[in-house]
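Running this now, will post back.
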Amino acid sequence: MKSDAKTRLIHAMAALLQTQGYSNTGLNQIVELSEAPKGSLYHYFPAGKVELAVAAIEYSSAALGEQLSRLCAGAPSAKAGLGAIIDFFADELQYSAFAKGCPVATVTLEQSAHDDVIGQACAAAYAQWQRGIEVYLRRHGVNGASGKAEFFLICIEGALTLARAHRSVEPLRRVKRQLPTLLGAANKEP
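Update: finished.
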């Protein structure tokens, strides 16, 4: 199936971007991991690696957004939902031996200043996640949901970076302990 090769290429690129970034990912490595025919890379992505990276960032953004929505769906409070997000990232880090953090952070840090197309894809991913968190907080009656969603995203991204650097989930745990302060007194329930 033709689209199967395209999907495999996107998934392979997404996995490699998350663990090793854009610069450390080679086209042969993508083809090998995807098990797609080598010619399919330029067939589906005529602009090459940048076009494939954008598709992978968009895929990762949507997949993570859906995952976070599922995590929050059954939570009884905003604090519990955001806590579930933090626990998810902590588990991912530990399970991957601290190789898997945010699926777009590495690419953002290394490429946004050098490639406008990739930078825009990364910015769109963060905006999508922030909107999702904002909508979730509004549903739970959190005042100032927009600013709090942005601040939560900032805290998570920083904590993920520190967690990978220190090979410890403690930075994420500290963010989780600060959720009552972030959300305000009305949202201190479990």
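The radius of gyration is 18 Å. More later if anyone needs it.
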